[in-house]
Design goal:
The protein is of the alpha+beta class. The protein folds into two domains: about 5-90, Peroxidase, domain 1, CATH 1.10.520; about 95-169, Glutaredoxin. The chain is built from eight helices and four strands.
Length: about 170
Amino acid sequence: MEMSQRANNYARAVFELGISMDDLSAAKEIFETAPELMEALCSPAVERQAKRNVIDRLFPETLRNFLKLLTDNGSAGLFYDIYEAYCRLDRDARGVLSAELIYFTPPTEKQLEGIKRRIAGLWGRPEVDLKLTRDEGLIGGFIIRAGDEELDCSIRGRLARLSQQLIRR
């Protein structure tokens, strides 16, 4: 899912202000526990001061001014996108590579650790945050995606490359 530039800008501001991941996660948990709270903060029918009072009572102090700003600007609904963008900034700052392993057959824990080490080495990062996705259309093998790069070691990919070679002849 593509994030809005506004969400990315807000995330960068929160990151640069030094607001902790713990505080942001606490706010996310509050919103997930009480989804009606997000609805109220986004609603033009709820008075501005009522929204500010709720923010003061429920959220970590470090986030209150930021959440009030979001609410005042009608951007409270961007919170989850801001959170995701912040997580990416945090991972990048720590040198963690976000990657996706798309597989046909689920890897064992031992294979998964080896794959993470190999990805870390290939992309020159100390740590890898690996998302796992099953795709039965691969027929076999796997695909690794990291950043804007893709390493296709699937049978479907091999067949597609073979087909292209035969067509070019």
